Known about the structure:
The protein is α/β, with parallel strands linked by helices and 420 residues long. The chain has helices spanning 4-20, 23-39, 41-57, 62-68, 72-87, 126-137, 151-167, 184-189, 205-214, 237-249, 268-280, 290-293, 329-339, 352-361; strands at residues 95-100, 106-113, 116-121, 141-145, 175-177, 198-202, 227-231, 258-264, 285-288, 304-306, 320-326, 344-348, 366-369, 388-390, 398-400, 406-413. Strands 10-9-11-8-7-12-13 form a seven-stranded parallel β-sheet, sandwiched between helices. It has a four-stranded parallel β-sheet with strand order 5-4-3-6. The protein has a three-stranded antiparallel β-sheet with strand order 1-2-16, with no helix packed on it. Helix 3 packs antiparallel against helix 4.
Amino acid sequence: xxxxxxxxxxxxxASHALSKSTSQQRNQVLLTLxxxxxNRQARILEQNLADCEExxxxxxxxxxxxRLKLDEKRIAAMADGVQVVAALPDPLDQxxxxxxLPNGLHIYKQHxxxxxxxxxxxxxxxxxxxxxxxxxxxxxxxxxxxxxxTLRTNAVLVDCVQTAMQKIDIPSAAVQFINDPDHSxxxxxxxxxxxxxxxxxxxxxxxxxxxxEHSRIPVxxxxxxxxxxxxxxxxxxxxxxxxxxxxxxxxxTVCNALDTVxxxxxxxxxxxxxxxxxxxxxxxxxxxxxxxLQILMIDSWEYIQQxxxxxxxxxxxxxxxxxxxxxxxxxxxxxxxxxxTGHSDGILTxxxxxxxxxxxxxxxxxxxxxxxxxxxxxAELGLGAEVAISTQxxxxxxxxxxxxxxxxxxxxxxxxxTRV
Length: 420
């Protein structure tokens, strides 16, 4: 493998060339990539199968395997996502804050690329394509460091991206891949501040903590989602059940999957009985407080557990769901403030005042009224894709897509103005 230093130096040089490319050139790279993904599908699936078989042989977490596995449908979705990104407006054409000052100076902010991104992530090979597409479209070079469990898949996907760039005469060094699983290379990458402008870790809490503590590069963290839905006493209960089912069951191993249902005490017994019936069909294990278990009419204890200490602070990433009962919307808001990671939290209600109060007081990256937390996704919110879901406040928050991969420069135009 090329050394980390050389990769970063090459990326910096390539970023200058990429920032000078036209919107048409960058879009053509993406459309070419769509064709290559389709044409190389068999090869991609072959390499992904080898990765999956190795994960199985090592007895690793089944959730890891679910995130890693590709099939024809997922490859088609990756290609579709690239095509959507290609069709989006060029973020580098955007200006904001335009105004003319009393002295005649015309000023505005012009969006420009961040420069070189480094993205460290685990398991999901679709991240490789999503990040590469967004980086190319926004004029950024990117250095990818995927998990050791997906080396083969990522290698063939990055080769697809670099082939597309070469066909359009864009430097392939603008998208590079650290293909050695040696952890010391991550530590080396975190020190490459002269060449890398932003570090984005996507993974578990340990990875985020490590990057914050050791990186000399500015870090954007997020993607760890302990997500909540509060079921208000006024909620349409039958429709609320389907929202909960979607948020928990559709894809339980992702960061926007539901972790805790909070229920108003006035409807708790009746609603939770319905919830038990609804979720046991999908083999969801409910973790319920002991005092509540005593008053519920439970025919079968299969998929029912007494809640344990620390359960409210777990990102389950599985078919598990915690339950909490509260007296009112304010108690729900307080509970979310204590246990949420600031990712995605919502309220199901028919009470407009409670909805407005919840929106005002819950300070998460994405806050919902009467919708599943599964919509916290760049594609679902009309952004094409995302590099990560940021849960911090500086620079970007929520799904980080094209706009969030740019900064700006001030442009000041005058007529030979001098300052008085």
